[in-house]
Amino acid sequence: MKLILIVISLVLFLACTETVEVEKPEKWTKDDSINLGKSLAFEQEMEIKLFLKLRPEWEIVETGSGLKYWIYEKSEDTLKPIPGNTVDVSFEVRLLNDSLCYQTDPNELSSFLVDKSHVESGVQEGVKYLSKGDKAKFIIPSHIGHGLVGDLEKIPPLQVLIVDIELIDIR
User: Fold this and answer.
1) What are the distances in angstroms from CA 56 to CA 46, 68, 132?
2) Which of 31, 75, 136, 157 is the most exposed place for a label (fewest CB within 10 A)?
3) What mean pLDDT, rounded, does the chain reach?
4) Which long-range contacts (CB under 8 A, 24 or more apart) does 110-116 make?
5) pLDDT value at position 23?
6) 68-73 and 86-95 as β-strands: parallel, antiparallel, unpaired?
7) Domains of the chain: which residue ranges?
C-alpha cells in the first residue's frame, strides 16, 4: 500500500514539474495604437457617410474634431453659450441603427456646465454652435463620445452617437 502511494506521489510530482513554453506576444508599440485608432476612425467615417447618404436633406457642417452637426430649426436669438455657462437642454441620444439610448423626460430639462462637466466632449463642442432656442442634430464619432468603453450602461463601446438636441436656456 505504501509503495502504491509513493508511486502515485512520484507520478503527480513529475506531471506537475513539466515546463510549458508560452509564446510571448509581440510588443505593442505606439505606432500600433496610432494605426488602430486610424483604422477605427476610418470605419466610423464610412458608417457615418452611409448614414448621411440616406439623409440628403441634412445640411451637415463638420468641425475639425470630427463632430458633424445640422441646425434644423434656427431661432431668432443670437446668444450662444460660452465655456462656464450653464445650459438647459432637452435631448435624445440614438445609435446609427436608430436604437434609443437616452432621452430627457418630456417635462424635464437636462443642465450642464459648458466645457466643465461630465458630458461627452462632442456635445460640449456642439452646443457652442447653437443659439438659445435652436434645435440640432449632432453626429458624434466615438473618439469624442463614449470611446472604447461606452458608458457601461446603454451605449456600447466604439459607437457613433446621433444626438437630437434643443438648447432651451443659457445661464
Assistant:
1) 16, 14, 26
2) 31
3) 90
4) 111/86, 111/87, 112/86, 112/87, 113/84, 113/85, 113/86, 114/81, 114/82, 114/83, 114/84, 114/85, 114/86, 114/87, 115/83, 115/84, 116/83, 116/84
5) 72
6) unpaired
7) 35-170
> Which residue, chain included where needed, has cell 441646425?
71
CA distance 55 to 127: 22
User: Which three three-digit cell numbers place residue 109?
Assistant: 430639462
The domain defined by 35-170 folds into Chitinase A; domain 3 (3.10.50)
Specify the pLDDT at position 26.
83
Give mean pLDDT, residues 83-97: 97
Whether residue 39 has pLDDT greater than 80? yes
* 0.85 surpassed by pTM: no
